[in-house]
């Protein structure tokens, strides 16, 4: 430590100790214990004195003209304070949307999907609000439903949105196509002539729900200045604010938003849910209004993953080199645009996978239909494409008589390879190494139930405790897959984040405070921000302020971008704070030691030290009574839109890669599947928190497993109504369904990113699904071209 004399000169210098809890360490999450013990305050736990409860009336049909709405009985219900319909909205701005403002706050003229909001009620008790909503009489006149590509693009198709003026409208072949993106490189027709083997496939990917456990919740509190304070579980505070303010007719500064406890998101909270509804009711009644969806309503209250039909053709030479890929990807966007245009861009640009292919012809489109709206979900367009192209790679390997892993490694891209968009992959792309590593992992022992005899654990068998088999008809299968996912917002989007960092002396210790608008949805960003501050500022104590709109935008917690972009902003702001502190130290103590002027100085262990570890001053002495605070924006390098005709362009800032090996055991008589192991190898650039990284990889892998064997929202093809809006009928993996997930983490730095890191959360969601399907095919010999795989697909029943 440093001791100073009366005139401020150091009297004794010793070596400083490194700061603990910085980047690269598995620092525990500050919210972890609270969450697992049930003490964490989620948005649904919020309470305000004298608050009302909001309730939405949703449409019972998917496509119909609204003939009339009668709210008189609802208004007459004791305890009801307000009932609002489209005609009660306060301004002429009555639609919202992330990119295209096509979603009505409340339905007007017609409803376009099952469960669309028609009216909202505020009452003094949630049951009163529910009963009042049920008393609203809505007369519908049915309209023809649009449910697939054929009905959406027919010459006489009913248009979901007439007179479109959005930027994509002029570039699509039909008004019911939200967006179209081709990717054209080389000459596929000529390459087809070089192919010795050509395989084709048609694939179907089901509609997956984010299935977050914490339902949509919010609390709106009217303020004395005529504005409103909104406490909300969301993924993107400032995007919400941008959409809410015009509808309410308020300046953004009068809508103060604070993030409340979020119980998972996975893309499903990127669009608005009840934000505007709660604010409207609060401003109308002059009272706080709380809204909480039940599970049934949650299925209608957020977007889902786009279901897709994918048509692929791959060619290869006898020696296993890919010649060409031709594909058409049709995504069902549902009734409103949400983020469908960006999903289309991802599906198209990543549609070949992590392989070197010189000749490519891909077309991706998203449709407007009367099915439930679809938008962001973990993997964002790349998941559907990966399922199809990896099935194609297995088909080609089989036709060529090659090992499926070695065939993939032969065609794997690497640093310096060209994407189908013409973009050079300018950071490590260890695709072949990931495949090698995942294949080299030890396999789990076979038929463990035979070894255990009478002590066998039935949970290890297909069917589990239902005791459907003791091993009869059970066959093992092994499958592999690898995927590529972009990181961050793409196609020219101004992707930035803001961080405010303050460093001050409190109680004789240096304390850093980090303030961002980043939505902590479970990804562990608050942990990483504290680690960055400790590393850059050399302090032990870091306070993370609640996320709100009193600081600049942090962008969305999506696209695997927050550690990269908001982490980058925190790092940058900390660096600027550090420079100010060091400049202050030079002015205060520079005359007493030459190292202040000549050495590279750092902050470590609460001290100012040289790069050789020599302590020059206590940080609290430099800070004194005056804090240093900086708010700063930070951007990654710019991207550019894809060409609308060819799809060429520097569209993505970074790519991430993961490979999986699935081991399954299938009861071929009953069509039951038990996934025994789902091993993953992934390059993360730099693991800022290794434990969190492993958790993200295992979580993404489990969501990929879910859509492989059980998860699907079932929509009636005749009525476009959702059949299974509950966790009774929409199944997600439980702990009994989740296999062992060994993880092998590579750390190959991306020099363009803070600390060399690479976005982690989405890549494992891609390749886990096709790996499981490949393993089931390996066990059964069946083609299996759709997800999820159900028992009847395996038994032919």
Strand fraction equals 15-25%
Round the Cα radius of gyration to an integer and report it.
28 Å
Query: What is the SS-derived class?
Result: alpha+beta
The main sheet comes to: 7 strands, mixed
Shape: globular
Number of helices: 20
- What is the straight-line distance between the termini? 76 Å
Q: Looking across the biggest beta sheet, what order are the strands in? A: 5-9-3-16-13-14-15
- Helix fraction? 25-40%
Mean pLDDT: 95
- Uncertain runs are 1-16
Tell how many strands the DSSP assignment holds: 31
What would your notes on this structure say?
By secondary structure, this protein is α+β, with helices and mostly antiparallel strands. Strand 18 (322-332), helix 9 (340-349) and strand 19 (359-367) form a beta-alpha-beta unit. The chain has a 7-stranded mixed β-sheet with strand order 5-9-3-16-13-14-15, with helices on both faces. A 6-stranded mixed β-sheet has the order 11-19-18-17-12-31, with helices on both faces. The longest helix is centred in the last third of the chain and has 28 residues, at 562-589. Helix content is 26%, strand content 25%. The chain contains 20 helices and 31 strands. The relative contact order is 0.14. Residues 1-18 have a biased composition (Polar residues). It comes from Streptomyces bluensis. GO terms for molecular function: xanthine dehydrogenase activity.
Condensed summary:
The chain has 797 residues and is α+β, with helices and mostly antiparallel strands.
Give the arrangement of secondary structure elements.
Layout: E1 3-4, E2 10-12, H1 32-36, E3 52-58, E4 64-70, H2 72-75, E5 80-84, E6 95-96, E7 103-104, E8 110-111, E9 117-123, H3 126-134, E10 137-142, H4 149-153, E11 177-185, H5 188-194, E12 197-205, E13 217-222, E14 228-232, H6 237-248, E15 255-259, H7 275-285, E16 289-292, H8 295-301, E17 308-316, E18 322-332, H9 340-349, E19 359-367, H10 382-400, H11 404-411, H12 431-440, H13 448-452, E20 474-487, E21 496-506, E22 509-515, H14 525-537, E23 541-544, H15 562-589, H16 595-598, E24 601-604, E25 607-610, E26 615-618, H17 619-623, E27 628-635, E28 654-667, E29 672-683, H18 690-709, E30 743-746, H19 763-780, E31 786-787, H20 791-795
Parallel strand pairs: 3-16, 12-31, 14-15, 18-19, 22-23, 29-30
Antiparallel strand pairs: 1-2, 3-9, 4-8, 4-10, 5-9, 6-7, 11-19, 12-17, 13-14, 13-16, 17-18, 20-28, 21-22, 21-27, 24-25, 25-26, 28-29
Helix pairs in contact: 6-7, 9-10, 10-19, 11-12, 14-15, 18-19
